[in-house]
Amino acid sequence: MPPSSLAEIIAEMEAQYDPAWAEPWDAVGLVCGDPALPVRKVLFAVDPVAVVVDEALEWGADLVVTHHPLYLRGTTTVAASTFKGRVIHRLIRNDVALYTAHTNADVASPGVSDALARAVGLSPDLRPLQPSADDPRRGLGRIGTLPSPMALREFAARAASGLPPTSLKVAGDPERTVETVAVSGGAGDSLLGAARAAGVDVFLTADLRHHPASEFMEAGGGPALVDASHWATEWPWLAEAAERLTSAMAAKGITVEARISDVVTDVWTTTDLD
Amino acid sequence: MPPSSLAEIIAEMEAQYDPAWAEPWDAVGLVCGDPALPVRKVLFAVDPVAVVVDEALEWGADLVVTHHPLYLRGTTTVAASTFKGRVIHRLIRNDVALYTAHTNADVASPGVSDALARAVGLSPDLRPLQPSADDPRRGLGRIGTLPSPMALREFAARAASGLPPTSLKVAGDPERTVETVAVSGGAGDSLLGAARAAGVDVFLTADLRHHPASEFMEAGGGPALVDASHWATEWPWLAEAAERLTSAMAAKGITVEARISDVVTDVWTTTDLD
Amino acid sequence: MPPSSLAEIIAEMEAQYDPAWAEPWDAVGLVCGDPALPVRKVLFAVDPVAVVVDEALEWGADLVVTHHPLYLRGTTTVAASTFKGRVIHRLIRNDVALYTAHTNADVASPGVSDALARAVGLSPDLRPLQPSADDPRRGLGRIGTLPSPMALREFAARAASGLPPTSLKVAGDPERTVETVAVSGGAGDSLLGAARAAGVDVFLTADLRHHPASEFMEAGGGPALVDASHWATEWPWLAEAAERLTSAMAAKGITVEARISDVVTDVWTTTDLD
Amino acid sequence: MPPSSLAEIIAEMEAQYDPAWAEPWDAVGLVCGDPALPVRKVLFAVDPVAVVVDEALEWGADLVVTHHPLYLRGTTTVAASTFKGRVIHRLIRNDVALYTAHTNADVASPGVSDALARAVGLSPDLRPLQPSADDPRRGLGRIGTLPSPMALREFAARAASGLPPTSLKVAGDPERTVETVAVSGGAGDSLLGAARAAGVDVFLTADLRHHPASEFMEAGGGPALVDASHWATEWPWLAEAAERLTSAMAAKGITVEARISDVVTDVWTTTDLD
Amino acid sequence: MPPSSLAEIIAEMEAQYDPAWAEPWDAVGLVCGDPALPVRKVLFAVDPVAVVVDEALEWGADLVVTHHPLYLRGTTTVAASTFKGRVIHRLIRNDVALYTAHTNADVASPGVSDALARAVGLSPDLRPLQPSADDPRRGLGRIGTLPSPMALREFAARAASGLPPTSLKVAGDPERTVETVAVSGGAGDSLLGAARAAGVDVFLTADLRHHPASEFMEAGGGPALVDASHWATEWPWLAEAAERLTSAMAAKGITVEARISDVVTDVWTTTDLD
Amino acid sequence: MPPSSLAEIIAEMEAQYDPAWAEPWDAVGLVCGDPALPVRKVLFAVDPVAVVVDEALEWGADLVVTHHPLYLRGTTTVAASTFKGRVIHRLIRNDVALYTAHTNADVASPGVSDALARAVGLSPDLRPLQPSADDPRRGLGRIGTLPSPMALREFAARAASGLPPTSLKVAGDPERTVETVAVSGGAGDSLLGAARAAGVDVFLTADLRHHPASEFMEAGGGPALVDASHWATEWPWLAEAAERLTSAMAAKGITVEARISDVVTDVWTTTDLD
């Protein structure tokens, strides 16, 4: 059985995560690599950073799929005197391609927030927090329910144990009972209004800043907030995306080996302060 | 000795924190209240929120001075059907004024980051991280030195013990030796470039998000990062501002009683997860 | 019978003057006041100015409804050191609410220009001068007919006698016969094109400036112009709005007392020059 | 003595009213005509309208100088199917040039507001209301003093008698005593702030609208307002400009005949309403 | 039989080249002239330049119809001290009107590119290269086929012989076989994408610049390019427009004499360099 | 003698063509490659296109210096599925760097237009056509004189023989005598005004389009125009830049081998039409 070409892998990725679904400001798709080359091994990671390139080269990956774009804003240089250019040079010299599925993976169904919802133990019947205008079955964030009502502090503990290593902050009364939950992988400032409108008990997301969170809580009447690390909320999606790709290729008679990067690329390391 | 009028208090505050120093997008100065009324008791707080109004009314404050504006963007209504309007109604009905010193207090010398620097134990010879164009003795952030070199993890522990209750996250090798330190109260994303250019060993600030922090660390060659809570990094300034006001008024023969709010208005509460 | 709450009054006002009809740049609705408080007495006025507040406090009003917004553009302060802030402080201290119906009252049917049309004696079958895109039965301005053709100078005299005290200026041949009339309360520069397109004989409005009016007349073939004072063209609406509110509340079994402000807030006073 | 060429007339006009002084949005200078043609007769008028062209053709003018531009905004057609194009066609067919001195004449010294100040009887020592940034001896508006203090109503009567036929409206207490006066020919909304800052007793200008005037009076502490017709406040300048041109040309030994248009092009006609 | 008025000619032109079809940035229609005057002789030309005015006056034209606007961007002056103003003065003084049909003639069917397609020998079954959104039967450019396949160099020679005097440049392999052809009169940079999408063998247009053409060819897989002079690609339309106008007027019983300007207004003259 | 590193070459290039001189919209400097690698052979070319990469790989170049940027506008992908990405992949895989000196080389002294001036035989005392604001000795374009006056047609022939293969178009009377000459390599539309102001007899540049050139000639009183191919006007600079680089490196004791690309990357090929 011949190996798959990069072009075939891309076709399958785009069948699942249509680039047309990405936000207008986003930059998804193939970043470097030659669609005609064969692809046997695919590494899935959140961030296109140096330690992920190390892992790809050590393992012998032909393709790295990341959630975050290397160049979200356009560049006029990939010189190796820049850290992003070094990523490009190392990948091209070793015939490793880089492919990004970002906001198109966020809004896909299933997508990034479905995996997050499962990781924190929500029931499987999920619906979008902010449905896409063109297809309300897709969208940003997901809303689901816990198996039974619990205190906010219990939910936070449950989230911490279901996610990879993460910081975790809570806003709201720790003893408040929560049952309906909204989750959204990555920075969630812009979804605070949707979370209030949805009438959920708690909203789990990342990168919330003081002012929007403080004004949200002062306004009152809305859900509690749980803020985890950006990386930890998006990592659960990798395994799902890898499984979907390898299964789909296998159904076409093509074997692709996938690996989930286990390098924590959360910028924040934990220190033993206490 | 007659009490001070609000007008006199404002004149003294503006002598120390000139409104002309505020950023063009900022909204500083008197938010509500009548300059002709007497002021005997002044409450200093970070955020103009409901619990701070509770404290002001209980204590019998005539004036609340906050760091954060109530209306950073303009409003066309102060109706009591909004949470900000409720703040306005409660204050006006009880003849309590509200006054804000925000980015003009950030860049003053001494200002918000001087107090933060002292709180985490930097030596007293501080200089601005990003000097103001019109007067380089003022500016955003401060640069100082620790009494002796120490591991990054030790500095983080020192910061945690010097600040009021706060979350604390670290990026960089915990064993890295640090001695020169940049600090900036409040959200610090926009000062990452200045911190790198300053050649310091570590930059302590708040509200750093994944993408700017991750790209900053990947670029390499710069300082380690310590991210504390927004509220905790600004709170140390309150005592200093109160002291400067009461001393200056006393020098004019006027007694003003000041109080530092001890209500934690950090939106994030700590939960016992472990 | 219990008094009405402010919330109930607002609900009725919005049933008649839907805030969604207001222009995007406008600022309508509740400006200050608490929706939970009772409302027994409502004062209707064109402008939210100091003499109107005087009248409201003397009469014991619980609510002032004005046509013009206090803050058309957003403010970051309601300090009593500003004249608008003094309005806010006096109203809040006396538990008087302020509510605005502006461009939503202009386009309502019946609305501001219906009352103006009646005041100058047009027949009751009126149609909008510039119909709203979403519902052509509403819109800016009204077109109607006089009971019989008359000279332009006669129409001007008729308008002067039907309106409260006003300056009045006329452009066009005073002997021209007019029968179809367009009217629009408030500043009418932007409706000159609609008035020409409507084929009417005369257009009565306010605040017309030299250049648009001069170019309009030079272009020829259009209606004559009558320019009255801004205040005088909007005042007739107050009685109608008051009547509609009290009747609707009475139908619900609630008594609300209404009063039409008789303070002339036209900025222009007449002097005896001759 | 040979007649002057249009080019020579323009050179003299531009020596007195430098086009570089005009606002960036303005359109001054030669509108139509051939600089090589002789000019014996020059008609001065406020507006480039049909009745002024009638007068120019009847009198045999070679040049019409107006204060207002024919095309303030650019046009892509001068077809005779437009009223402005008809002006162009009639002028070109009869070899009559059209020249505009607008905001460059406003800020010149002496300029439009000097003539207005004299017309209402101010003392000759005038200074700009809003000095030009590049030369504070020039600028918009003029400030002067009355020969003796008088009631506002007396000043208004004095203004009415010193100006050509005009409407006249007053804001402020008619019995208020006024002595220092600011005047500005044409629409004066944008100079209200300067008039307040100047600390004058009364500001005479034109085309003031309800909202800016009402907010100005509500703010309190500023001058009274007198609003005359746009045309009437600019007409006094014509005689002065004509005199300056003919004198300057005579000094070069060239005879130019000037005429001040006596057609009232104020769009507003007076009707006998009483 | 009475002569036609300019108004009747314009009505017929607009029936064929509806001004509503013009691009929003364009300026089409009557530039000068009086619609009431009679029109017996009409000169058609590409550019409204001095030599075309010479020809119009010598021949005694009543109307000049050009493809290019005299004032594409608005002007505030038509003074004879400018070269465009001299065109206006000469035309108005001699009662000659000027009328423009530009992008409305480009997208008409038949329009400018139909005539170009015929001039270079394409078969008569043409379709738009970039169909108009509101009516796909109209649009910019035309696509057609050659009677038989030929080398690119042969097609270029054919184009050179079918057009009036023109420079001609070719990009692509001269021996490449071409059969399907896109043509667009005037500057064609903005249609390169449409030409590639259409899958034609060659695209003939004008005013192509180095960078867009170079990137187009480097991208590969698209048509060859032929760049002729702007004037030469639009000139063929003149005869067709003249024939359509005179026929349509004749059908109404009105005789109009038309003439195609034979002055080459291509700015580029050929020199004998070899 | 050790080879030079890319970093040293870049330092020398930037000493001669300071990146700070580039236009704000430009993208100059290192596009790909590793500054730490050695550089022995440098290929100079106008365009970073496939045939230039072919030449670089065949010759064994370590660095390609081009005048035109590969990515003038930013890109978010260098995938080999794009023609620009293929350039990047081929260069990086073969350890060939790409460096651009564009508008910084245009305004340098000597720069691109100096070489062009020499190629067409102007005397060596040249001055900028549009001097740079910060240093008037640099700037866009050059002005010089011919050894003796000649007919425009003779100058055009001289230019054709001095340049590499090029199309050549002339606007103006071929027999006009010319002596002072302005030249500017690359697209010259934006310098037409400067060329008129300079009072030269002829302006040689590239990529002039019909409308600006036609309006320029109609305005009259300015220079004749000669339009050559974009590529041909910039190619002469390559030899000079190569010579300056190798000399400067030799002076430091470092041998660098330079080669001028002899591939014509003008998009326009000549066909034998006659």
UniProtKB/TrEMBL annotation, chains A, B, C, D, E, F:
Binding annotation for a divalent metal cation: 67-68, 106, 230, 234
Task: Please provide the record's keywords in A-Z order.
Answer: Metal-binding
Question: Pfam families attached here?
Answer: DUF34_NIF3
Does the entry feature the keyword Protein biosynthesis, yes or no? no
Q: Name one GO molecular function term.
A: metal ion binding
Q: Does the keyword Metal-binding apply?
A: yes
Instruction: Output the superkingdom of the source species.
Output: Bacteria
Gene3D superfamilies, per the entry: NIF3 (NGG1p interacting factor 3)-like (3.40.1390.30)
* Cellular component GO terms held in the UniProt record: cytoplasm
Describe the subunit structure. Homohexamer.
**Family (UniProt):** Belongs to the GTP cyclohydrolase I type 2/NIF3 family.
Q: What is this protein called?
A: GTP cyclohydrolase 1 type 2 homolog
